[in-house]
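Hi, here's the filled form for the chain we discussed.

Project: internal
Contact: R.S.
Residues: 294
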Amino acid sequence: MNIARPFCYSVVSLKETFPRPRVFRVREDYDRGEFVSRSWEPSGRPPIGRMILGVVAILLFPCLPAIEASMEDRSEGDDPMKTARLRMVRDQIEARGVKDPRVLEAMRSVERHLFVPEREKSRAYNDTPLPIGYGQTISQPYIVAYMCEALELKGGEKVLEIGTGSGYHAAVLSLLAKEVYTIEILEPLAREAQKRLESLGYRNVKVRCGDGYKGWPEEAPFDAIIVTAAPPEIPQELVNQLKVGGKMVLPVGEEIQELVRVTKGEKGIKTERLLPVRFVPMVPGNRVETKNHF
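And the returned structure, exactly as it came back:
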């Protein structure tokens, strides 16, 4: 985006005293990548208006990046949700270290406000989890992006998600992988997520109501697995459904939780601790009535 740069003026004296300062007028010609300068010896004091303009330009120069970013947001149109979404990605995700361009673009594309209850829409692009009903939450945007980046997806993978919730994380994954299989233990949430994802055009996502601890064995093995609820320890059945060389990202723990990345090798698994987190607990299926996928 081109932003008109103000002229910058400076007063330079060639003597220890300043009876008649030499004034240099410098114009940065950004269109041609050139610098044009002229100087003159005024007969009296330099024009006060020009000096004031120069001071204002110097003071405003550090603010130009923020002004440019604001103008970029506005250039996207008058949709306040889109403006908020772009700002969310820039300020909450990219600024905090998420660098994968595919993840950033997916986060810009998926409309989070369509995955939260009406009463929460005004907070949809805040960096916070939000309630979605039935004692469940939608993860904060930064965590969604961070977990997706940690999977290191290239676009051709088959991914299993445990904990569909409202379907937001599955929607983001659908733009990063070839196929997404997602399991939700609560039937009302699973049905709502299925309907929402279909209506929004996410055709490569399959939803199932079931026990996340059991995974989706008939579709295994998976290139990647992501878990959005916290088991007390890494579920072995999910490790079994992971391809050799595949990665699984999940929160682990009860009172104290950590986000970990599991990489499966020929002789076992490698576990990396990523960061402290707080997720809802992962509930076994024997505590909840479950049904098959729709």
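Let me know if anything looks off before we file it.
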